[in-house]
Amino acid sequence: VDLATAVDITLVTSEVQLIDSDQKGPLGHGLSALLLGRSSVSRKGIFVVPGLIDADYCGVIKIMVYTLTPPITIPAQSKIAQLVPFRACVPKAHAVERGHGGFGSTGQPQVLLAVDIARGKPEERVTMAHPSGQSLTMSMLIDTGADVTIIP
């Protein structure tokens, strides 16, 4: 299923941009879909970042794009992506209210940290902030030999 842009957009940097498409979810019939770029678009220097549209996603389907040669203008109604529908074959867990957020809006918040760990077992000062305004600062051991981070 071809997916067209809903708006005109000019890519002025090489960073990934979100573009509203002309389609909304849910897709219907319990279908999920892979969002892929059309090969003709890649030849023009516009690259679509592949994505997954869940069967229960509600809202405008967004297309993630970037270019290595800005500026490039993409007119509204340009068919730059396609949806490849499929039926997920995994057991159902439980219903989760998704809303219209998209891009990981249903999971628990994640804390991701990138640090140079060339030196052995380094420590890093980390501040954890809660939306209520409370914060906690502590030293954290970055253990490169473990599959979990230990916060003493």
UniProtKB/TrEMBL annotation:
Gene3D superfamilies with a match to the protein in the record: 2.70.40.10
Pfam families according to UniProt: dUTPase (PF00692)
Top-level taxon of the source organism: Eukaryota
Keyword Hydrolase attached: yes
Single GO molecular function: aspartic-type endopeptidase activity
This protein's UniProt keywords: Aspartyl protease, Hydrolase, Protease
Database matches in InterPro entries: Aspartic_peptidase_AS, dUTPase-like, dUTPase-like_sf, dUTPase_trimeric, HERV-K_Pro_peptidase_A2, Peptidase_A2_cat
Residues covered by the Peptidase A2 domain: 138-152
Any GO BP: proteolysis
Protein name (database record): POK9 protein
Source organism of the structure: Ptilorrhoa leucosticta
Gene of this entry: Ervk9_5
